[in-house]
Amino acid sequence: MKKNKQNINDMDYSSFVGLIKERNRPSGGIKTVHDVAINALIDKNKKILEIGSNTGFTSVNMSLLTGCKSVGVDINQNSVTESIRYAKENNITKSVKFICADTRKLPFKDGEFDIIWVSNVTSFIAEKESAIQEYIRVLRPGGTLVVVPIYYIKPVPDTIINEVSKAIGSLVEKWDKGYWLKLFIDTSNKQGVNLELYYEKDFKYLDRTNIIPKYVSDIIDKNIKDESIEIKAQINKRFQYFMNLFNENLQYCGFSILLFQKRHCVEESELFLSRPVENI
Asked: Cα–Cα–Cα angle for 213, 74, 78, nearest 5°?
């Protein structure tokens, strides 16, 4: 894994994760995995495709939790390699597989999966509608599309938007929750498919400024063994940069767990809705 200083400083975040082998959990971490497992009724009989599986956390832990069969797809080969190692470490290679593939042309049959998990990966894809069409294509009728989008809940400075876009190597815009809901539903309608939202739960992010230095140090000590002191220092600096930037950005953000069912037919809209009562 020999990297020079220039390469490290030029890496976008997706490539950097593959280098440092950060587990890179979904928003909400393991609690999100549990929440989805319960509300999407995932069990050992379900077959899941995670798109943008990164270094394998969600696919591996969903399989450990439920016994389901899981396939993870990512465009970064280093991340796929680390995901395979992680599955071996957890002794579940018979139920979890990882491959390198392009989201815009998934190597799977129509309706092959019971669950499609895309978390926030659609933010990183320029051709969003094309990607969503592929998500829907490989999901069986009656199956669940799991989306965990990050979006803005208050005004964010353009300087932060521009810096985040550069850091992840993809254009970020001032998307709100409504943008993501409309994008998924409108794209499905254009395909003649009905996606019905049956579960949603909203969250805000905590400020983790004080935790970042130790987190970065722990990950590097665990995963970067064979590099020089100079290269480790460069990795530490780049890692701290990403984490501080993302933490700053997330203070303007929220995220949601959204579960859509792919319906056989279009149902009439619901009129009398409700919301949980927080204080009685």
From this structure: 60
**268 within a domain of the structure (yes/no):** no
Integer Cα distance of 165 and 124 in angstroms: 9
Question: The whole model's pTM is what?
Answer: 0.90
Give the CA dihedral 150, 208, 38, 256, nearest 10 degrees: -20
Closest CA to 188 of 254, 243, 118, 265: 265
pLDDT at 276 over 90: no
Spatial neighbors of 27 by CB under 8 A, at least 6 apart, are: 119, 120, 148, 150, 203, 205, 255
CATH of the domain at 253: 3.40.50.150
Identify the top-confidence range among 169-183, 220-234, 265-279. Answer: 169-183
211 phi and psi angles, rounded to 5 deg: -90, -25
Residue 111 in domain: yes
Count of structural domains within the chain: 1
119 part of a folded domain? yes
